[in-house]
Specification:
This protein has about 290 residues and is an alpha/beta fold. The protein is built from ten helices and twelve strands. It has two domains: about 50 residues, Roll (Spermidine Synthase, Chain: A, domain 2); about 220 residues, 3-Layer(aba) Sandwich (Rossmann fold). The strands form two sheets. It has a seven-stranded mixed sheet, with helices on both faces. Strands 1-2-3-4-5 form a five-stranded antiparallel sheet. It is globular and about 55 Å long.
Length: about 290
């Protein structure tokens, strides 16, 4: 009988994945338990403290929407920071844009980066070889306070964990202040904001914080099957531009065609549809 991984992220609900062969990794870093294994339906999977972080089968629905959507609407992203993102799936997408001069990935757990380089090469091999990428093993909260970060980035992607344990520092007021300080005029930040069906308060609280700290902010959606619960919420905040306007969507579609980006999830039609919120999600807005 095949071994099974069971994720219990939500009280009262769990998902199970059938493991193929022996687990590849099961160890504890100074920060968390790291597990990597192959599955029957979801491809290769990494979990941190028992919670699914990435699967090789559907990572594109997450990484592409956090990067290409804001980058195509912005049009001139040269410098990118990724908060977390140790599997490098987001870095790999950002580096597809020829306009990008540098991508700085800041993850507190160097062991995650090492293991993903070895075991998720199908996802991130090109990123690791790209000279525009800098990987900083550091606390992103602290990193953002550094002098050299002031007005440095056109795009900051918050690939942060859920707001529990050490991850709580990446949700509070000071964190958003530091994000705002690090953005250039016209810059955009995007964030993982949970699965509204099971984490409605995360959406409401994040949007309220963003509204207090940024001139423009909002919400759009993606669907990542391995993140159980249906829609995943991605929030955004900006200094000078609003995402999801008809003009912005039209500009992104033209840029996508011109750049000939290769994607598995993102399309201009998906871009436009991502801003159409079901009524029950609309009601979660503060």
């Amino acid at each position: 009988m095949a071994a099974t991984f069971k994720e219990r992220l939500y009280r009262g609900y769990a998902q199970a994945m059938e493991i193929v062969g022996k687990p590849l990794i099961d160890e504890k870093s100074p920060y968390q338990r790291i597990q990597i294994f192959d599955t029957t339906l979801n491809g290769r999977v990494m979990t941190l403290d028992g919670v699914v972080q990435i699967t090789s089968r559907d990572e594109s629905a997450y990484a592409e929407m956090l990067t290409h959507l804001p980058m195509l609407e912005h049009g001139k992203v040269k410098s990118v920071m990724i908060v977390g993102g140790g599997d490098l799936s987001i870095a790999e997408e950002a580096l597809k844009h020829r306009s990008v001069k540098d991508v700085v990935l800041v993850d507190i757990d160097g062991r995650v980066v090492e293991l993903c380089k070895k075991h998720f090469a199908a996802v991130n091999a090109k990123a690791f070889k790209d000279k525009r990428l800098t990987v900083e093993i550091a606390d992103a909260f602290e990193y953002l306070s550094r002098k050299e970060c002031k007005s440095r980035f056109d795009l900051i992607v918050g690939d942060r964990p859920d707001p529990i344990g050490p991850g709580q520092a990446l949700f509070g007021e000071t964190f958003y202040d530091r994000i705002k300080r690090a953005l250039r005029p016209g810059g955009i930040a995007t964030f993982q904001t949970g699965v509204p069906f099971y984490q409605p308060s995360e959406v409401t609280e994040a949007l309220a914080e963003l509204k207090r700290h940024f001139p423009q902010s909002g919400l759009y959606l993606t669907v990542v099957p391995s993140y159980i619960g249906g829609f995943m919420a991605l929030s955004w905040a900006g200094k000078g531009r609003r995402l999801g306007t008809p003009a912005g969507i039209k500009k992104a579609a033209a840029a996508f065609k011109r750049l000939k980006l290769k994607t598995d999830y993102y399309t201009p039609a998906i871009h436009a549809a991502a801003f159409a919120l079901p009524a029950w999600i609309e009601r979660l807005k503060p």
